[in-house]
Amino acid sequence: MAKEEHRIVKGQVTVPYELALGRTWSAFYDFLKDERIMGKKCGKCSRVLVPPRSFCPRCYVDMDEWVEVSQEGVLETWVYVNMPFFAQEIRIPFISAQIRLDGSDSGFIHQVAGIDLNDFDRVRETVKLGGRVRAVWNPEKRGNILDIAYFEPVD
Amino acid sequence: MGNAVAIIGTGQTRHGRRTDLCYPDLVREAVTAALDDAGITLEDIDGVVLGTMPSMMEGVSSTHFYFAEAMGSLGKPVLKVETCGSTGQSIGHCGFFWVASGMADIVLVVGSEKMSEGDGQATMTTVFDPFFQRTFAAGAPGVFTMQSMEWMYRFGIPEEKGREAAALISVSNHDNAMDNPHAHIRMRVTMDDVKNARVITYPVRLLDVCPASDGACAVVFASRKAARKIGRKPAWIRGLGFRGEEFFYGESDKAVWMSATEAAGEAYRQAGIRDPLKELDVAEIYNPFTYQEMIFYECFGFCPRGEAPDYVLKGTFRKGGELPCDPSGGTLCTNPIGATGLIRLAEAALQVTGKAGERQVEGAKLALSHAMGGVDQFNGVTIVGSTL
Q1: B123 partner at 20 to 30 Å CA-CA among A1, A76, B37, B366?
Q2: Residue-averaged pLDDT of chain A
């Protein structure tokens, strides 16, 4: 007997959304337009968080104070992505990275670029855990996270 | 901890690519097996708990409606709980709470996923926030690789040693899966196979990564009174812990991982465990990625921080070692996500009741089960024992 064929139906669900950023995150993107990276400081534990929070996740108090953080920081970890994912905005290969910007107390997620990403061995020589990286701005500001184009390794 | 609670039956599907069944029938395969194992019928069940991944996984929302008949919940109270990868532990805890509270005598807990029907990594990507981090999300592999890199860097683990230990975990898990008739991936692999497999997200390679599976698991929770009446050998819930941390990746320290550490710590306190490596007989750890399994060993106190690769390489966690981990083949060989954490608990229960067949750890009396969920955000642990 021939192998049993299982009947499959293709399906797709497409749902549009309109997502409100709220006051704190709207302000963050307004600051990005002026090429400033701003965090919020907790009045209780004094931590500076980027992305900014409207309230401190640990102290559960409002975070009212804006603090500008450095556009340079330390590369805490990274991953070289060379396989495509559904709805991926950035073309592969790319590097996702966690960066501790000077003057902040949290890791900021963005990408490391500005080097030849096609040669992985070269990438490993250039992109170092614990190494320093610096923000490179997108000349065109669209009000999203890619207003910072990427972070590049600092020699 | 409330009233005593026993697991009196477990059921699992044959996991894998199950295009032979529609999704509700997959759920029913596990439920029927669990009822048979417990020696009860649907009439004995006071309530049903269900857990799955978010609706995007199979494209059907709120599946407790879709599964109402398959999970035997007609005319009964139903709860649905989902915490991403840790769902299976969350629903197990929920079953425990329901019986421990005295509000039910027998509760059926069901976890399921049919990952061949959707795009697992696209679903995972929607777990990230839409404004800051989703842009850079590379599914689960991206996150877990970032975490593993940070962990190795923090503790000065040489890349080669990390690679060697991760490869050994892959080999052990695949060997173990050969003993488990329910496992999805059943093939032997060598160290070289793992080290030369296709790179997914460097240094993570294909054989460091779990498959996307179709599968379901059902577990029957019973009060002491009900367990005694039914007369099956029970696995007693000895302790449980669940902890979460901040949503944004980068805000909490994933190299020492508070949620995993404290979830286990809470469960140990309840179970009276002081030296887990010595006292536990077996552990079923949620290990979708080989490297991550080592971070769990450290968080769960099986070894000092930064030393997991040494313990792995001397065989501590292999079959016949001091604390065998994942005798089922683990998440690495079978991952129907909404079911996976519950499978860990079911496997732990099978071990302490001596019903684990070929994968039995001889004389196991105390077992740890675990699951992790979200963008490394939640961890749940349940400890079961052969005695209360």
Answers
A1: A76
A2: 94
Residue A155 has pLDDT above 80, yes or no: no
Residue A91 inside a domain? The answer is yes
ipTM of predicted assembly, 2 dp? 0.95
CA–CA min distance A111, chain B (Å): 7
Which parts of chain B sit beneath pLDDT 70?
none
Q: Please give the pLDDT value at position A3.
A: 66
Asked whether the predicted pLDDT for residue A121 surpasses 90, the reply is no
**Which residue from B minimizes the CA distance to A147?**
B132
Cα–Cα distance measured from residue A130 to residue A127, given in angstroms and rounded to the nearest whole number? 9
pLDDT at A89: 83
DSSP calls for A17-84:
-----HHHHHHHHHHHHTT--EEEE-TTT--EESS--SB-TTT-SB--EEEE--SEEEEEEEEEE-S-
CATH number where B365 lies: 3.40.47.10
Q: What's the average model confidence in pLDDT over A61-72?
A: 98
Residue-level pLDDT at A82: 87
Q: Within its chain, how far is the Cα of B31 from the centroid?
A: 18
Domain that holds residue A56: 22-153
Extract the runs of DSSP E, i.e. beta strands, from B304-375: 366-373
With 0-12 / 13-18 / 19 or more C-beta atoms within 10 angstroms meaning exposed / middle / buried, residue A55 is middle
Mean pLDDT calculated for residue range A120-147: 95
State how many domains chain B has: 2
The structural domain count of chain A equals 1
Nearest alpha carbon to residue B334 among B8, B119, B113 = B113
B122, A109: Cβ pair inside 8 Å? Answer: no
Is A15 a member of any domain?
A: no
